[in-house]
């Protein structure tokens, strides 16, 4: 067996130490994905996917990286950070020669997109602000990207905000729109839902007014599209949206979208559109961690002018963990009770009032849920997952399924092994240990034609398994 490459050993040790230093969540956000660590000629290079990531890592993590490189790799090794070749699509800044008729056209688009639809409620009243966000490890990358967009809208050609329902995509898009209007850094920003865009386009198709439809977007220099998942499988609308994206970016504009899943999981979207989604910056907004949940509850309670005891807050943050919307809903219930009774909310009242709501929010994960999530993500069948196949395209999903079944259910090892192809309990234990080892090493695996950090894969699978 050939000796291990010392450079590889140094890089693995550095990545593991960095993950321990900054935490798994921040490591995944800032150093996962396409970030590469390269070591040669007494220089360690951190290669990132965009100028934005480069700026943030230099600003926030360079001292940590320098310290770890000198301690683990050697004091003579220099640290260098750069944007990887071919990672980012560079767009020319917008020209100033806007014709007189363009601004009214864009305003007519904004007026047309106001009516509510089932999936995209009308945005009425005050737009959300970026300052409303309670910042934590779950959303700091997205917030930083949003602030960068507001300061310089044309630096990153495409930004994709991803999160499950209720964790702030729409809030973030509204905040960006509000700040762009306030700052004047964009001449004509426009926010609309994907369903609104689809309905508007279909009306133009049926009335044979497609040229007018396109003309109304001519002055838009920053397009914000919410719920982009709605376009999945709608080929004609996808083609039109791709045409619009090309037009905006050819003028030096920017496109910002929000979606429930990673662009690589939009399996009925054209490859060219997905590649554009990934050409700039993909920002994941995760379910809030405990500290952030406490901040959200405190902020919303202050807004609702309701006083909550420490026990009440402890109950909320320990039981309602999936999204921001749930947390705000619990505070709304307690605030209404407090206003009606004139009493302060304590722990016992909180448990009594929120007991039913807690049961409604509780999702019991079954092994069939885990199986469905794994099969959908990796394109394997249940028969393949439970077969004796030793192909990597089957064994990796099988190990992930066993690991998640153990983590998300109360089922013992023996029953998990029986469920996934009549395997014994030692096979499940072995799978669990292998996945845990890969997590500690910051490992990755292939999902289709792409490589994902294993932590991101598990997080996505867990979200899908928990989905009602």
Q: What is the radius of gyration computed over CA atoms, rounded to a whole number of angstroms?
A: 24 Å
CATH architecture grouping of the largest domain? 3-Layer(aba) Sandwich
Task: Quickly count the helices.
Answer: 21
Percent of residues in helices comes to 40-55%
Structural class: alpha/beta
Count of beta strands: 10
CATH superfamily of the largest domain: P-loop containing nucleotide triphosphate hydrolases
Query: Would you state the CATH class of the largest domain?
Result: Alpha Beta
Please indicate the count of domains: 4
Unreliable residue stretches: 86-125
Reported by name, the CATH topology of the largest domain is: Rossmann fold
Q: Give the rounded overall mean pLDDT.
A: 84
Inertia-based shape: globular
